[in-house]
Design a protein that fits this description.
Distance between the termini: 40 Å
Strand content: over 45%
Mean pLDDT: 96
Length: about 120
């Protein structure tokens, strides 16, 4: 089992930045690929970005390319999502997820989410 706890969400103005964190416990963090997903009000959950267990590979959604960056610190069992140039359409609950394989569709473990609100 893996427990994931997100933090760092909040209210920010358009054009601003936030950094989300996800702390993991349980199964060896460094063996897992990690990802971020989001769900806006009235919409389905969508993939944002993911990173391999080593940090050497990432995949990213076109909608956030050039603005969001995922990273991880295996010594701290934590994955981050740096979000810059935020737009109102980035408003969503952001979820951290873990998987044995780097991918954008199927994840094995999920956090409970943290809310990001971007005001115009």
């Amino acid at each position: 089992q893996v427990q994931l706890v997100e933090s760092g969400g909040g209210l920010v103005q358009a054009g601003g930045s936030l950094r989300l964190s996800c702390a993991a416990s349980g199964r060896t963090f460094s063996s897992l690929a990690m990802g971020w997903f989001r769900q806006a009000p009235g919409k389905e959950r969508e993939f944002v970005e993911a990173i391999s267990w080593s940090g050497g590979s990432t995949i990213i959604a076109d909608s956030v390319k050039g603005r969001f960056t995922i990273s991880r610190d295996n010594a701290k069992n934590t994955v981050y999502l740096q979000m810059n140039s935020l737009k109102p359409e980035d408003t969503a609950v952001y979820y951290c997820a873990a998987s044995t394989i780097l991918n954008r569709r199927s994840m094995d473990y999920w956090g409970k989410g943290t809310l990001v609100t971007v005001s115009s």
